[in-house]
Design brief:
3 helices, 139 residues, 4-stranded mixed beta sheet, 51% helix, Double Stranded RNA Binding Domain, 4 strands, alpha+beta
């Protein structure tokens, strides 16, 4: 998995790259690392939303993560007063959306399995009736 970082409105420092790799890439590898192809690219954008404000929620972190095995891309955006806080907020939201997506996939599988079971379910009375029918046919 690779991290592609873009900065808007300020110069990107190497310390931010290592912070992003530590805060965003490591939790992703922990959550879905085995299922990811090696060439997966996670897009991260750091931005300063305004040039004239000095205080407030002016730092933004956006993350685009293509889910493995699905056509869906998870998009996360976090605004905060510092860039580190924005990275933490984006990481938390990304983890929440990944776990929700996993829960949806698992519940879809269970729903399909239950419907197949109901379709092919034979009650114990039907089993007994068929065995009695076979016994009568033999005689």
């Amino acid at each position: 998995m690779r991290l592609k970082i873009k900065s808007t409105g300020f110069a990107l420092m190497p310390s931010l790259e290592t912070l992003a790799a530590q805060k965003i890439l490591k939790p992703l590898e922990r959550r879905v690392g085995q299922k990811l192809p090696v060439d997966t690219v996670v897009d991260v954008e750091f931005a300063k939303t305004t040039r004239h404000h000095l205080e407030g929620k002016i730092w933004k972190c956006e993350v685009n993560f293509p889910m493995p095995g699905e056509r869906r891309t998870i998009y996360v955006e976090a605004l905060a007063e510092s860039l580190e806080a924005a990275i933490d907020g984006a990481k938390d939201e990304l983890e929440r959306q990944i776990s929700a997506q996993k829960g949806k996939r698992f519940s879809k599988f269970l729903r399909a399995a239950r419907s197949v079971k109901e379709e092919f379910h034979i009650t114990s009375l039907a089993r007994r009736a068929s065995s009695i029918y076979r016994w009568v046919r033999r005689k």
